[in-house]
Amino acid sequence: MYEMPKSKSDVAGDVFCAKCPARYLITKLSSKWSLLIIDALKDGPMRNGELMRFIDGISQKMLTQTIKELAEMKLVHREDHQTIPPHVVYSLTPLGEGLQEKICSLDRWIEENVIAMVEDNNSIPLKLI
Amino acid sequence: MYEMPKSKSDVAGDVFCAKCPARYLITKLSSKWSLLIIDALKDGPMRNGELMRFIDGISQKMLTQTIKELAEMKLVHREDHQTIPPHVVYSLTPLGEGLQEKICSLDRWIEENVIAMVEDNNSIPLKLI
DNA sequence: CCGTATCCTACCAGATACTG
DNA sequence: CAGTATCTGGTAGGATACGG
Predict the structure, then answer these.
(1) Res. B101: pLDDT tops 60
(2) In degrees to the nearest 10, what's the CA dihedral of A25, B107, B115, A29?
(3) CB distance A118–B21 less than 8 Å?
(4) Which strands form B76-80's sheet, in the order they lie side by side?
(5) A26 — contact with chain B (CB < 8 Å)?
(6) Number of domains, chain B
(7) Measured distance CA(A108)–CA(A114) in Å, rounded
(8) Residue B23 forms part of a structural domain
(9) Contact A28/A37 with Cβ under 8 angstroms?
(10) Quick check: B56 and A118 CB within 8 A?
């Protein structure tokens, strides 16, 4: 799937090059849960339970796993207050804020153009009741 | 995974709602191949072979499959000249052009911020040679 | 409250071979 | 050239139960 870069030029950002880290990152980020979590954090820090309720359909497992990946990419900051019961807060890093603008722009566009994309399309399960 | 919308309000665009078609669309679009194909078509129509060469690492299977999905969403137009040998050209629809702007913006941001996201990170296979 | 661990399944997606 | 068809392993991701 992802291959180790073999020369210095592979380190430059080019999503079209299979060996570039940029391809690795776009692979990681191109999941619905990554996009939705970053979008959800746009208005400020949120806790685990808040995210679970806000992002309808996400499981605890996928939330934890995806947030961990986003933290490794330095897009999300995890703040553990070390209390009992636990109090953990997630927020976007400055880097994450930059990405958030792009992702929110994408998400809002999708929401605004849903009808155009699904109309007259039998393979998309849209049902106006 | 995706559930049929059960009331009219579910048809409005809200990616955070599991039953909204917008969620279905973001699920479909959040794949590396969808993002890369739409990005690749930004400078004009391309043929099957051109896309194969331009998008390093994509297989014929995934290209065909993903482009079919994008065509169903009315984002990509497939033009078959009905000749032998075959001559098929893919291009963005007007709707696809709108999405392309958002996706390219996202891709360029990723490329520009690769270094910041991967530095000091052992779990991301970056190797400066 | 915020996780982890385990099991289990469906589908993603690469490899390969074949077609008009 | 631009596909289709089939096989297969790998992994995403849900369900469930447990833990600090």
Answers:
(1) yes
(2) -20
(3) yes
(4) B46-47, B88-92, B76-80
(5) yes
(6) 1
(7) 10
(8) yes
(9) no
(10) no
What average pLDDT does the segment B68-81 reach? Answer: 96
Q: Range of A55's domain? A: 19-111
CATH number at residue A38: 1.10.10.10
Closest alpha carbon to C1' of D2, residue: B86
Q: With CA atoms as reference, report the closest residue to B89 among B59, B45, B55, B50.
A: B45
Is B53 among the domain residues?
Answer: yes
B10's tokens: 């579910």
Element (H, E) at A33: helix A32-40
The whole-model pTM stands at 0.90
Average the pLDDT over B98-103 and give the result: 98
Q: Which of A118-122, B18-22, B43-47, B91-95 has the lowest mean pLDDT?
A: A118-122
Give me the residues of chain A with pLDDT under 50, please: 1, 4-10, 127-129
Does B65 map to a domain?
yes
